[in-house]
Design brief:
MetI-like fold; about 280 residues; mainly alpha
Length: about 280
């Protein structure tokens, strides 16, 4: 009886700690949402009032219209979506193919190739940024979608993640498929890829978010306003001398919506993976 009471008390303490941590993490998001509905004067008042006295829907119009009223926000959202979705798709496919080869095929120098790819993860992007920019410049890819996408078609982390995940994929099933006459391409696309939902969803979300938040590279490659992405739009919006804090919060809130939607759409794969894992343990 005492043990049960102790377990219940411990569970309550853990739940309370997790609830406090979740509230602390969500606090900036709550501030962003409430501030996007306030005037600049109300936002800067101390102590901060979490409930707006008057909802300022005009902030969202200002965010979409921009400081110069050219509604470039819509085009920049399209640019970010196009770049992020393309990079996420290519990263998932290419990293899966590479990870599958490194995990399930034995060939001379396999570990050397894998370690060499892992070593590239230790190189900061800032050290290769200028040489990479010179390559893009010489290939005449500046101010093009290709210049924004091609350098990020695949990354070493994606290869590492998929290799580690696919090492747990049963090789007996693959051998049975080969005996039945299935090709290697068919095994990969019809069996391996279909049953790797949790890993693919995780990699897709991480790749999408990384490109959605990418600021430095688009600032260097895309000088044309029509090719700028959302982070660059937010920077230009905040650089105005008389910045509207309410409109800035509205821009930030609108910019976060696609990432939240993508996570909600793919969250069922995480839950499905957890259920399968739990069932396997039992």
């Amino acid at each position: 009886m005492k043990s049960n009471n102790f377990d219940k008390m411990l569970g309550c303490i853990i739940n309370a700690c997790l609830t406090l941590c979740a509230a602390f993490i969500l606090l900036p998001l709550g501030f962003m949402i409430t501030a996007s509905l306030m005037s600049s004067t109300e936002i800067t008042k101390m102590p901060y009032r979490w409930i707006p006295s008057h909802i300022e829907w005009i902030n969202f119009y200002k965010a979409i219209a921009g400081n110069d009223g050219n509604f470039m926000f819509i085009r920049n959202v399209f640019n970010s979506l196009f770049v992020s979705v393309t990079v996420a798709f290519t990263t998932v496919i290419l990293s899966s193919l590479t990870g599958y080869g490194l995990a399930k095929f034995r060939f001379k120098g396999r570990n050397v190739v894998f370690m060499a790819m892992m070593m590239t993860m230790m190189i900061p992007f800032e050290t290769i940024m200028v040489p990479l920019y010179m390559v893009v410049l010489n290939l005449h890819l500046q101010n093009t979608y290709a210049g924004l996408i091609v350098p990020f078609l695949m990354n070493a982390f994606g290869v590492f993640m998929m290799r580690q995940y696919l090492q747990t994929f049963p090789s007996d099933i693959m051998e049975a498929a080969r005996i039945d006459g299935c090709t290697e391409t068919g095994i990969f696309f019809k069996m391996v890829l279909v049953n790797s939902g949790p890993a693919l969803a995780s990699l897709a979300i991480l790749s999408f978010r990384q490109q959605w938040d990418n600021l430095l590279w688009p600032l260097m490659v895309a000088q044309d306003k029509k090719l700028k992405t959302i982070p660059a739009y937010i920077v230009s919006f905040a650089e105005e001398k008389f910045a509207d804090e309410g409109a800035m919060m509205a821009v930030a809130f609108l910019a976060s919506i696609p990432v939240i939607i993508m996570f909600i759409m793919l969250s069922r794969y995480f839950l499905g993976g957890s259920v399968i894992y739990s069932a396997g343990k039992e």
